[in-house]
Design goal:
Layout (H helix, E strand, L loop, with lengths): L5 H11 L18 H18 L3 H17 L7 H16 L6 H7 L6 H14 L9 H11 L4 H16 L8 H15 L7 H7 L4 H15 L6 H8 L6 H12 L10
Helix pairs in contact: 2-3, 2-4, 2-12, 3-4, 4-6, 7-8, 7-9, 7-10, 8-9, 8-13, 9-11, 12-13
Length: 266
């Protein structure tokens, strides 16, 4: 981002957050689906995203599209993967320089849908969401906080893993993405003993203090101390490419606070 306009740009992104948040209770209106099925879908989207080596922004936007769409439309079980594919296609067209073809997605979905079905689903989602995808991507917030962390690679990688927990675990859905990004950096620094959450970090996080972040940190801790349920997501971040972030984070969570503990009093 252009540094001289950074403050204005982020003020604008913060102002958009609430507008593009999905309904965190939308599953109440979905007769065929539940949160576990949604988690399976997102885990599969993580796998697809990894295979295509797409940008992080594409994955976050794709999941936001899925959730916003299902906040206003009831989806049958046999169509849920189709919604995921179409959402990823839309996100890739927005974020990527070279997006995979529709046929690539059809193939990776084991040819479960015809190309015309995917295109029809894409058109439907675009129309239902009014072609409005000015989503304030959480990667922008994380990168800004990284500036105050001297762009430390390991801290940012673990924070990115924690941030992506907000994709697979619906319990993070009620929180603004800027807050989840701040809590992810806060927690990653704690794991690596990188020092206090100082005034500089508070500023670059969007003015989130330690006390502001405790509820999100507790939600992340809850996920980390539970058994692995999203295999593709865990394996992605257990790789050398991502510095074994998922292994480090889960080990730390169990050793430091134990299953069922919380962040109060740290």
């Amino acid at each position: 981002m252009v540094s001289e306009y950074a403050v204005e740009i982020f003020d604008y992104l913060y102002s958009l957050e609430t507008k593009y948040m999905p309904n965190p209770r939308y599953m109440d209106d979905q007769s065929d689906l539940d949160w576990k099925m949604r988690g399976v879908l997102v885990d599969w989207l993580v796998e697809v995203h990894t295979k295509f080596r797409l940008l992080p922004e594409t994955l976050f936007l794709a999941v936001n599209i899925v959730d916003r769409f299902m906040s206003v439309r009831v989806i049958t079980l046999e169509k849920v993967q189709l919604v995921g594919i179409a959402s990823m296609i839309i996100a890739a067209k927005i974020e990527e320089v070279f997006a995979p073809s529709v046929q690539n997605y059809v193939y990776i979905a084991d040819n479960g849908y015809e190309q015309k079905e995917v295109l029809k689903a894409e058109k439907c989602i675009l129309e239902v969401l009014n072609f409005d995808f000015s989503y304030p991507n959480p990667m922008n917030f994380l990168r800004r906080i990284s500036k105050a962390d001297n762009y430390d690679v390991q801290t940012r990688t673990i924070a990115k893993y924690l941030l992506e927990i907000g994709l697979v675990d619906h319990r993070l859905m009620p929180y603004k993405t800027s807050k989840v990004a701040a809590a992810s950096m806060y927690m990653a620094r704690m794991m690596l003993k990188r020092g206090d959450w100082n005034d500089n970090l508070v500023h670059y996080s969007g003015d989130y203090t330690e006390s502001d972040l405790i509820d999100v940190v507790n939600a992340l801790l809850s996920y980390l101390t539970e058994p692995v349920t999203h295999e593709a997501f865990f394996k992605k971040y257990a790789s050398k490419r991502f510095l074994k972030a998922s292994i480090i984070a889960r080990k730390w969570a169990h050793e430091t606070v134990g299953a069922g503990a919380n962040a109060e009093g740290w």
